[in-house]
Amino acid sequence: MVPTSNDGRAGHRQPRLGSNPQGSVLADDSDSENRLVEETKEYYHQRASQYVDWSHDTGTYEGGGTPEASWFMEGKMLLENLEKEKLTGNVLEIACGTGEWTEVLARNADSVTALDSSSDMIKRNKARLKDNPKVRYVLADFYDWKPDKLYDAVSFSFWISHVPGSRLDEFVSKVSRCLVPSGRVVFVDQQVTAEKNEVMDVPGGEVSIRTLDDGRGFKVIKHFYKHEEIREVFLRNGIRTRVSNTSTHFFFVDGRKTT
Ligand SMILES: C[S@@+](CC[C@H](N)C(=O)[O-])C[C@H]1O[C@@H](n2cnc3c(N)ncnc32)[C@H](O)[C@@H]1O
What is the pTM of this model? Predict the structure, then answer.
């Protein structure tokens, strides 16, 4: 699950990043972008122990506030929706985190390949799933990972907003290449309006300042994609999608590979 607010305390200094008119990290500034991708991974690795979810009263929300009731209600709707999607066969879950979504996917799938770059996230996911034999864990950076087989479905929750604009096409192309013909894609994330809860490094950019309970600050990729951008990039990569909003906070996407 994602944090809702941020107190904006940055614990260490980093060079300021430029941004292009679309709000992405500059295309020729690949070192900065790589550092941000690494810092995003490190932030979540360090955050695993204070990570919160919709069904367990554990962890803390960034900034210390508790989200409004509608946030929990809509979150539960997303989980129910994922179950209703009935993703069967071999399912790939990208950025599986502590397992709230893995748990749901494992109900209908024959197998779930749960990938995450954080060993601590995977450890917690395993504990939550009680070593469910359907679930195979992969500790990897998705950008570097070489898919080992074709999947009937790919799912990712609260992940696409951590993909920088300059890597979106590469990411979606890889998702498409992971899928069998007519394979399915289902994912969720926050609506663009959630940007107001973030402390952005540069207004309208795609870098957010996140702070852990112990005060350490991180720069994290946080790109609020518009529905049209999502539809277009997936279609360009052979996946037709339908994007729907919950009342206030989230969006839900279901898609199918067209070939
Ligand atoms: C916002 S959390 C979402 C976790 C889970 N899907 C959920 O909704 O509870 C983002 C997750 O992405 C993982 N992550 C960050 N960068 C990654 C990368 N490059 N490759 C794979 N996983 C990554 C983090 O470790 C973290 O578990």
Answer: 0.89
